[in-house]
Design goal:
The chain is about 30% helix and about 20% strand. It is of the alpha+beta class. The mean pLDDT is about 90.
């Protein structure tokens, strides 16, 4: 991206983020979650429907893998981090895939970023694609967005290179189409896209029961969710906003709504998302070219200063622009949150130590093997 192109894009992002900033009174309502007892009661029916769809070639996977392992003290793509001895996060995810569908192989899209694309491709090749058919793995780069300072002036990474960052996980489908893979979806008759993040090493992907539940319950989108530990747990919460399915952060929900409970004493807004989604591809294709909300986020942006010195700030110094996967839900007529067991399917790796860390993920992986 040239400086001139970045200036033009920055102007557009600033305009879109301003539109998104317009204050409206959002109407937030609870949304029904498919709870574990009900899910288990119909599990055989769900598995059968899901496996039939997989065997017909109707499911594909899309891995959100644009991140680096910086917060883990690791210099490389996050998916290459050795979460266990001689086993990377990527390898854990392929293990999870085989646990559910055996040696069946389905189209597998991998969204990288400018910062980790070549290293990710090289790692897959070095590991012999984890035993997967390389002809079914489709790499593509996430779109990048220019960053600016608090005065909305373009920041530079070097003299002639604008500072950029991935444009948020909601840009996955636009980036996939730009890579020319919309034709792959159509030619292969893919009806469902399972979109998941690289963070969660316990993610059950291509899960026949999850897919079958969505098909059987006649829904167009779904997410796996865990019951929140408490009202203030830092996870996105499934709800209905202004008549549309939505996911909002716990602090956006507000303390009063977050603490509301039903007649059984359970939180009304109980479903915390695990970034493991299913989307009807026909609706995704209909969203192509439609305007998406842009979020202006305060971040630490490495850049060069007026003297040409490279600066790596310790505090937020500017804005990055992001499109969120949750905003895509506005285009879907219905949505199914499916409760899963936290200890079996949710081990996010966000930090080196402490909560949601390498340490906690390793313990959960060890417990699964026991």
């Amino acid at each position: 991206m040239t400086t001139q192109e970045a200036q033009a894009e920055l102007k557009e992002y600033l305009s879109l983020s301003q539109e998104n900033k317009e204050e409206t009174e959002d109407e937030i309502r609870p949304i029904k979650t498919l709870r574990i007892p009900e899910y288990n009661k119909n599990i055989d029916t769900y598995k059968k429907a899901g496996m039939e769809a997989i065997e017909k070639g109707e499911l594909a996977l899309l891995l959100l893998a644009g991140g680096m392992g910086t917060r883990l003290g690791f210099d490389g793509p996050k998916g290459t981090y050795p979460i266990e001895e001689n086993k990377s996060i990527f390898e854990c995810l392929f293990d999870n895939l085989r646990a559910d569908i055996g040696e069946r192989q389905i189209p597998f899209f991998v969204m990288t970023s400018d910062k980790n694309d070549q290293a990710t491709r090289s790692f897959f090749k070095e590991k012999n694609y984890f035993g997967y058919d390389p002809g079914l793995i489709y790499f593509f780069r996430q779109d990048m967005a220019p960053a600016c300072d608090f005065d909305e002036r373009l920041l530079l990474e070097s003299k002639d290179t604008p500072a950029t960052s991935p444009n948020g996980n909601g840009g996955f489908f636009t980036s996939l189409l730009k890579a020319g893979y919309g034709d792959v979806l159509k030619e292969k008759g893919i009806r469902w896209l399972n979109v998941f993040g690289v963070d969660n090493v316990l993610a059950k992907i291509a899960d026949p029961a999850f897919l079958g539940a969505v098909i059987t319950e006649h829904k167009s989108a779904a997410v796996k969710a865990v019951l929140k530990k408490d009202p203030s747990e830092n996870v996105g919460v499934v709800c209905e906003k202004n008549g549309h399915p939505s996911i909002i952060e716990y602090f956006e929900l507000g303390e009063e709504l977050a603490a509301q409970r039903d007649e059984n004493g359970e939180l009304l807004y109980c479903a915390g998302v695990t970034v493991n989604y299913l989307f009807d591809t026909s609706i995704l294709l209909d969203t192509a070219g439609r305007k998406m909300p842009v979020h202006k986020v305060r971040k630490k942006v490495p850049h060069i200063d007026a003297a040409g010195n490279f600066v790596k700030p310790e505090e937020p110094n500017g804005y990055k622009f992001e499109i969120l996967i949750t905003d895509i839900l506005e285009f879907f007529p219905d949505f199914l949150p499916v409760e899963v067991i936290r200890e079996e399917e949710f081990a996010p790796v966000k930090n080196l130590h402490g909560a949601d860390s390498v340490d906690t993920a390793r313990k959960l992986l060890e417990a699964r093997r026991a």
